[in-house]
Amino acid sequence: MVKVKFKLDGVFVEVEAMPYQTLFHLLKDSLGVQSVHFGCGQGACGACTVLLNGKPRYSCLTLAGYVDGKEVVTLAGLAQNGELNPIQRAFIENNAAQCGYCTPGIILTAKALLDKSSRPSDEEIFDALAGNLCRCTGYVSIVRAIKSLVR
Amino acid sequence: MSSFNVLGKPVVNVQLYGHVTGSTQFIDDISFPGMLWIKAVRSPVPRGIIKKLDTKKAERLPGVVKIVTSKDVPNNMHVNMAVVGIGPPDEPVLPDKEVNYKGEAICLVVARDEETALKAIELIDLEIEELPPVLDMEEALKPSSPKIKPWNSNTFVFGSGMDGATPPGGQGRPYFLIKRGNVDEAFNKARHIVEGSYLISPIEHAPIEPHICVAKPEPDGRLTIYTATQAPYFVRDNVATILNMPPSKIRVVSPSVGGGFGGKVDPEFEMMVAVAAMAVKRPVKWRWTREEEFTVSTTRPAVKIELQDSVSDEGLILGRKARLLHDAGAYSRTSPYGVIKACFNLSGPYNIPNVEYRGYCVFTNRQPSSAMRGYGVFEVSFAIELQMDRIAKTCGIDPLELRFRNAYRNNQISASGKLIDDAYLIETMREAAGLAGINLPEHLLKMSSSG
Amino acid sequence: MTEDGLYFRFNELKQATDVKKKYGDEVLVVAGGTIATQLITRFGLRPKVILSLENLPLNYVKFSKTGIEIGATTTISKLLTFDNLPNALVQAAQGVHGLTLKEMATVGGNIFSPSPGGDLATALLALNADLVLARSGGKRVVSLSKFYKNFLTYNMRKDEILYAIKISRVPKLSAFMKLTPYTYSGPTICSAAVGMDLTDKKITRIAIGVGGLTPHPYRAAAAEKILKDKPISDQIIENATAKVTEGIQIREEGFYSVEYKSKVAQALVKKILYRLAGFN
After folding, report:
1. How large is the ipTM?
2. Cβ contact (<8 Å) for A20 and C52?
């Protein structure tokens, strides 16, 4: 077993992870986190994305022990004091989700992108999102939502 | 319109708030105390006979609760479309002896966690005697091919009342037949004969959410099935028949579905999860991997459409012969229905007075196929529209004009014998041309569906 | 401590190399985890020891008189924050699809990734890069062109870990290109990189890396031979391009034919050579 102590969406958590357990399974099956989703287990679809110390990470390709001493933020941890984050609002205004399964990964990746560069070009947006797949929307509304936040 | 509160006003999708905050619940979020996990032993070959299935060592692995085999299934027949009169049912829930596609689930390991279930699978001794598989539709239709169905053919039998479309007692045929007018006469009058062969590959739905299901036996003898499905009643009716339980005792709950596109219409595995749950009397969950999604879950079928058209001087299609092959894979599921639907669409929105269409529902030792976006219409539209372009080229007529000339008008009769009274193709094309900035010549603008 | 799945995360190199010495082959080294984790989750590997390199001081890029030194656990993202890196390396790094992958994947990890991974390795081959391998007793240097033996088999001892990548002499001209199914995503079908020096229009230095055709990228030695010490010209590029896949056993992988991949490799190398020679 691996003892893992980390901050999850602002709350300190201490758990024992199974050997070889990934962060995804730790969050989903052991801690009941709703907004990480299993899509591929191969780091291709991005549905399992979380922010680890502010940087996006595929939780399906992260071993549980990796997050010890770090801070994990999932989509649920994005809203501040009950107020929606501007990215979340932009997604609602632009109808940027249909089934919603890819949405947590995409919003977190968008947040990481905008934290890094407040004025990403179209190309930079496409490239940043290349690791998040959506089978419903065709991406147009998603890119529109993110572009609406580019000052 | 402005006096209404909802009509004519933009409405925000109520689900969006849940989606952007991560509070939308998907099936993977469903979990119960004491819940067990399922992993399947799957056939490594496309066709064979199970000679040995020794699960004793696996059963003794700590954490393994039960290995579910065909013996644990009360009524071992996947009934999918039988509930609407299409049959006979030809697919076991778990096979006794025969496996008919690579990846077919042979037995289920029910264990404390996925890791233990996977370890148990390694301890299962499976021996299969391989049989020559049929992997191609044309091969399947040859008299010399191995026959994979118990009625000794590789095609579904249409016409004798078991296809959901024809009355009982009719003549059974290896194809669905639509016949109207006299095609031979039409072909004698042909100015041009235009032929085309069109192939559509299978397409995997690939929803980001894989197949996931939880089944929970209730204390009062009922069963609740949580599954991301597009068709809860299919699930309920199938499970009820398979478990020999009245449908009123089965409750199907479908939370938000993470993409289906037709791939979650066929109950592919809910019955297995239900059987496992009843066998161990505890909640059980099965979460498919992406590999299983691609190699085992249903796909849009491979379809081959061969068209032969008799065309007049003016490019009017006088008669059409069509041969449509629809790859059902190893088991019928919804394919017979798909074939019927496809055949009815083979004329498209065009007036073809003489037709002979034969649609074959072909069985091969491949993963079963099913519905996907525009089932039976998508592949046919692809074929017939390319065929129209081919006709246009052969006759030297503008492809758009050709469609105007052939479009259904009111008071014509469709291939299926229906009197057309709501034709609108011509008007639609005129409007679309206008929006696309295409200037149609005067004589086309003067055409109408009413004459 | 349990029997299996011991998880180690050290701050000092010596602690890491000591563990590698003690457990050798039973250690799974994890940097970014993009490949290593899949060995566990999808390919059933159950290593006795998991050695995470995340806290080791190997996340750096240093410029000095002796060239460029890149720490093995430098992420692609971090690499791209530096100016003055050779074009081929920058282009290969930019080609890693997605923000998340750029933040997770490391330069060192990329060296070990089999095809269709290993884009940076392709570029580094064209830059004549060397690998610094560390073990308890010290360090040794191996040329990247001599590192790959076979699929997941490297010129590396059981008790060594990759410490850094060195580019001693940076070529004046370099470029990297790859073909993927889609503009912004999809596995590499084929990648190519060229490092070249032109002195009075003569090719005084040439190295060509090709990836995606073999388990790990290779140096197109036959093509290099045609070009070395010759004056650059259309014809010489033509002759060299024809030899890009000579003597190479291209693996059959089911999506793209061997013939197609061979042609793509030739086309990419030709395009790069034309571009570097200013022949467009």
Report:
1. 0.95
2. no
Q: Which chains touch A (3 or more CB pairs under 8 A)?
A: B, C
CB atoms within 10 A of CB B253: 14
pTM: 0.93
- State whether B22 and A75 contact (CB < 8 Å): yes
Does any domain span residue B194? yes
- Find which of A135, A136, A137, A141 to mutate to test the B interface (most B CBs within 10 Å of its CB): A135
Amino acid of residue C20: K
- Residue A25 reports pLDDT greater than 70: yes
Question: How many helices (DSSP H) and strands (DSSP E) are in chain A?
Answer: 5, 5
The structural domain count of chain B equals 1
| B12, B28, B290 ranked by CB distance to A41: nearest | B290
Distance of alpha carbon B85 from alpha carbon B101, whole angstroms: 25
- Answer yes or no: do A19 and C30 touch at CB < 8 A: no
Residue B72 carries which side chain, given as an amino acid letter? D
Phi, psi of B357 (to 5 degrees): -115, 130
Architecture of domain A2-77: Roll (3.10)
Among B23, B208, B254, the residue to mutate for chain A (most A Cβ within 10 A): B208
Model pLDDT for residues B296-315, shown as the tens digit of each residue? 999 999 999 999 999 999 99
Cα–Cα distance measured from residue B402 to residue B399, given in angstroms and rounded to the nearest whole number = 5
Nearest alpha carbon to residue C100 among A54, A22, A65, A142: A54
Per-run averaged pLDDT (10 residues), chain C, 280 residues? 70 92 92 94 91 94 96 97 96 96 97 95 98 94 96 94 96 97 90 96 96 96 96 95 95 89 97 91
Q: Is residue B333 part of a domain?
A: yes
- Report the gap between the CA of B61 and the closest CA in chain A (Å): 18
Residues 6+ apart with CB under 8 A from A4: A13, A14, A15, A16, A17, A26, A64, A65, A67, A68
**Interatomic CA distance for residues C132 and A34, integer angstroms:** 43
Instruction: List all chains that touch chain C, counting a touch as 3 or more CB pairs closer than 8 Å.
Output: A
To the nearest whole angstrom, how far is the Cα of A14 from the nearest Cα of chain B?
A: 21
Tell me the CATH class for A86-147: mainly alpha
